[in-house]
Design goal:
Blueprint lengths: L6 H5 L3 E3 L6 E3 L10 H6 L5 E3 L5 E3 L9 H6 L4 E3 L7 E3 L4
Antiparallel strand pairs: 1-6, 2-5, 3-4
Bound molecules: iron/sulfur cluster.
Length: 94
């Protein structure tokens, strides 16, 4: 009998090393921009959410550095760069 791991369990295997500034930022004045709402739908780690005021927020802890949010939303609403060397995600495959 095989055991199937769910997405959250798989993501939980990864290790994240903090350091420096956040590598993804919502550009000033863009938290309510409609383009940013796509990030809520496409981020595989579920790091974006919308607060009761209609502003999109991000919690970068757990970021997989896939760049999907930048492609979906565009550089006009997101500042995106890779984390500093030695920090960020370390993938562990289970
Ligand atoms: S880079 Fe990928 S994992 Fe990180 S916030 Fe964007 S979509 Fe989510």
């Amino acid at each position: 009998m095989s055991q199937v791991m769910g997405l959250k369990a798989k993501l939980g295997l990864n290790v994240f090393k903090e350091g420096g500034e956040f590598h993804i930022k919502i550009r000033e004045g863009k938290a309510k921009d409609q383009r940013l709402k796509k990030a809520i739908l496409v981020c595989p780690a579920g790091l974006y959410s919308e607060n009761p005021d209609g502003e999109v927020t991000i919690s970068v802890d757990g970021c997989l550095e896939c760049g999907t949010c930048l492609i979906a939303c565009g550089p006009e609403v997101l500042e995106w760069r890779y984390p500093d060397g030695g920090t960020g995600v370390q993938f562990r495959f289970g």
